[in-house]
Records
---
Amino acid sequence: MKRRLLTWLGLLAVLSLVLAACAAPAGGDAAAEESTQRELVWMARTNVVENPWEQDVAIPAFEAANPDIKINLLIVDQSDIAVKREAMIAAGEPLHVWSPNWGGNGFASDRVRGLLYDLSPLIERDGLDTSVFIPEVLAIYENEGRQYGFPFLTTGSYTFYNMDLFDAAGVEYPPVSWDDETWTWDRALAIAQELTVNPDDPMNATYGWVEGIWPAEAITWLFDAFPWPDDAFDTGFAQSIDFTSEGAVKAFQSRHDLTYKHKVAPDAAAIEGLSALGGDFQSGKVAMKTTGGWGWWVYSPVTPDVEGGFCWGVAPLPFGAPGAPTRAVIFTDPWVITAGLEGQELEDSWTFIKYLISEDAARAYMQATNTPPTQHKLLEEWYQQFGCMDPADVKDVYQGAFTNGLESSNHLMVGFDELNSTWDNLLGVFWSDPEGDAASLLPDVEAAVGEALLRIAEEEDHSFE
Amino acid sequence: MISILPRQKMARNEALWFWLFISPWIVGLILFRGGPILASLALSFTEYNVADPPNPVGFENYARLLQDDIFYKSLKVSGLYTLMAVPLGIVVSLLMAMLLNQKGVPFLGVFRTLYYIPALVAGSVAVALLFQWLLNPSFGIINFLISRFVGEEGLIPLGLSGPRWFFDPNWVVPSFVLMSLWGFGGSMLIYLAGLQGVPTALYEAARIDGAGAFRRFRNVTLPMISPVILFTFITGMIGSFQIFTPAYIVSGGVGGPAYASMFYVLYLYLNAFRRYRFGFASTQAWFLFIIILILTIIALRASRSAVYYESPGDDKMI
């Protein structure tokens, strides 16, 4: 009898759980509205300045204007974003709007693999005005007449410098013009030597120069030793890379010498330590840092008004060799739509992309993040956003990078991740070895990267004829 | 009244319970692992980049793997790590288990818990970041202590300085081995259980025969817990070949410098998820399976004369 009662009670409990699970969720109208919304998956990178804009500005504004579309924002660490994307595509999970240049391979690989939707027919159908974009920047994501994406930020590579350290030592700031041929590697080195204090004691050191140009191959650009074949950035493929030219050897050795010969730069271990403390340049212990233009927004929280803050300025990358025509690596990120979408999904994705590139949304993004815009109209506003620099100087130095630079190999070379891993592995020992000799190391690096380039081309059935 | 079940029925009952208890694992294996395992075998004979359908290439991936320099480098890194980390892990865990198996030590339960806690986060991102910081040659506390004790101006001025740990290719694997010791608590707990299962009568008999502490350890403890040592050796070896997270975090996914932290599974991961060579990566996975299988069989065979089983049928359990 007791057992039967227990059995009935048990069945009752299971039944009520099933009923509860099947019942309509509480919430009435709001829940009903939610269920009629179409969902769009937007993949973004983890970023302290971008994420609040996405969550609190972009999505609410878009959803208010398009109440039948709900944006599902997927935030992933930049280093893992490509992995996540691959896994989602492999699993057939919905993914609509994203950017191809974060983590691993970049735009070129995704284009070759057919992951990107050709937006050209949609642009033509809607008569979208693309003249609002800086033409050279828009063209980066155009290939064989197909427009694959719309750029939402673009920047060159620069020398960021700590004005307070310069002022304290009475040293003149570097110039803002990219054509100023007095701004040479040697002059930058002389300034770095003047500003370096206690280089052998990392805990109490102030370093004159952290050289952080990325990708690693791009240091050769400063020394007029561009290592890629002429058509490599157009096709995305190359048969070889030139790391053994006189300029390339000098470039790598000069960077190495900053640490071990001139003792103006921290070694890799000290950089790692400073980065863990909040960033090498942001620590206030570095007078100059040559690096990608992410400094514009990464360093933007550093102002004289915050504790430990300081005024910082921006200068061109120095000439390693007189008249080097291409010095700056340019980084431009676009929004794209996953290839293969159709019907309502495609229309919704396109609606969202159009919203993201609208003037208002682009302005809100620029203001919230300090990232340089890709539309003519907004640039003048962006130049005003840096309290310690004159807007005219910001304009000169920012724009100069585009007439003295090329888009980065991580965006334009197919299989970049393997190339980067190959040279980083072999150069890693060199950067940590005080006796390191570029001339003896670089032939090996050149050969290894060459092998990787041929392997990548073979895998993608690319012909060099 | 005591009912005595016939022997056959008892055996059937026991088998029934066995299958009942193991069924969640078996069902999980078939449903969630069986498919991917078979799929990876099939993919290992294809070229597959996710975006396009798999393209059959026969044994091409296997042939390519055998000609791949980085494959051998990764195998060497993982092999070296296993050779160092597994024996050291066994020694440290066993020593700690013996210390925590003492009688009459106050707060023994607290100590056992404290020493076990780090194992809960062993192999995690947090531990990798922690050791990256501890072992930083410029800012890390380990090198700071080395310089304070045996540096030029240390307590004992021997003029020694700490190694460059993760920045020196020769020190990379030892650094990861050091990091692996953080997780000794798991094995320590198993040894503790093993030590507590050794009959005290054996120690008493040995004591009466005049055996000292070392003899008792060598002739009583070691043989009695030898199946436990074998178990931790084999599971440790399998785990060591599969190390991924610390290498990924510390090297930033590059496996450097000079491929010194290119562990086997890191290279597999890079090929699959960063370079979209899922077919090739599946080949790597099956190669790893074969390597681990062979090493496990060798370990089991070699252990026959060294491992003591109380019950004659116990060796069939492993």
---
Amino acid sequence: MTDLVTPRVSTRRAIPLFGSLWPIAIVILAAFAAFFLFPYDLAFLTRIVIMMVFVLSFDLILGYAGIATLGHAAMYGCGAYAAGLFALHISPDPLVGLLIGATAGALIGWASGLVLLRTHGMTLLIISIAVTMVLQEAASKARWLTGGADGLPGISVSPILGFFEFDFVGQVAFIYSVCVLVAVLVLCHVLVSSPFGLALRGIKNSASRMRAIGTPVYRRKVTVYTIAGAIAGIAGALAAQVTGLVGLEVFNFSLSADVMVMLILGGAGRLYGALIGTLIFMTVHHVAASIDPFNWLFVIGFMLLVVVFALPDGLVSLPARLVRFLRRA
Amino acid sequence: MAEALLELNGVVAGYGETHIIRNISLSVSKGERLAIIGRNGVGKTTTLATIMGQTRQHAGRINLRGEPLDRLRTHERTRLGIGIVPQTRDIFPSLSVEENLIAGLRNGSSLDEAYDLFPRLKERRHNGGRQLSGGEQQMLSIARALLGRPEIILLDEPLEGLAPVICEMLMDVFKKLAARGHTMVLVEQHVGLALKFADRVVVLDQGKIVFEGLSADLVGNASRLDQYIGLSAAN
């Protein structure tokens, strides 16, 4: 028999602490500090920021909706190619290019999601990998359009808003990427705090329960997959614009796997876990690979093992765990 | 005779190829309170799950307001006005009480409706789903189902595992809902409470209806109850 009185009373807020907007201010401040502290590493920092956008998109589908795929590079790659081709053949405007990248990512997300999301588990994983492989092969064969194995070189974009031209050091590219990251972060925050976001979390908990309270689960999944596709497309477009090159490696399986590792490392379903995971993964990768180019994966693997066993909610949960530990001590 | 809201005609259903309920035909009128009782494993929960489209229906027809439900998916049935409070309560453990309720909001319903019915939930609105007692979880499950503005509510063993004081409180809530005009189908192991609550009763045995009639016909009739459900229930 259970009774009404529950001894443990929590003061948890309806929208968790990390659901508030102040972490976004921290992101802006951190970017501002990095800009001045590491003026010669801006190209690397820009890569981190772009990857953060990409991992955020993956957090929407894995962290919030519980859809585990290994083919997220499909949307990123399509966004990159679309923005690259758009800049080369139609218009060099970077903001319109981002929009084109988002549209391409959303379209491939929607089209593949219609099929993928009818499946579960291993089938879903395999089909998502297959979609990316098909796209990579198609990009390789369509040499007349994509440049095949040589990729799309020489992509250049016009000054942002007509004023800010991409410079050699990478200052404008970094600031541009940070602005896109902040915009995506705000969008994701609004999305996950909305009833739609709650429905996604409910679907992750139990799809059958959500159906029983009237939620069209499949439609919600396709919608979030499309939105995540758009954001991944933005990340791809940003990469194409900043590096000036798109190659077949944008569809690599390792990219999809890295994104999953970054998210698990930081903590899925928290948004800010995606940022922390990306930062740690890419920094460790950068440092470890420069020390030992052949065995850097050992460090990443070891780190992942420690996090999975000691911090199953990811590095983002470390402060709360420390506080709990200190209180007990 | 009152207008039939929900009708099952010759329904055969189960999980996969297995048939759990066989040739079930019953009708629930608008505003009626129907109890489905029977021993464990006779198909009571499967009957409700079949109405919700959560099982494989092999034969028969299910109609709501005369319209067939058979081809509709679970969420479409819910949106047509069928609400279910499942046996497992099915609250979302990672969401707070309020978030659980928001997930169930439909057709202009508001959280105040839930809090008016269960003030306890308002006090606990920021608590996580997994921090609730069994009684509170049941209140949340009922409140969430009601926020979908259902015309007919299917209650699957809502009193299971709850303290007597909570059972009484929930039975009062069910009476209140019935008085507001909700049609209610109650599956319950507490036979006495179920018979006291319902206008009509259906007894299932081995997936078939073995008795259908007024609750009053079974109340106090220990020999018939013993025949259908077993001696302990009769007591």
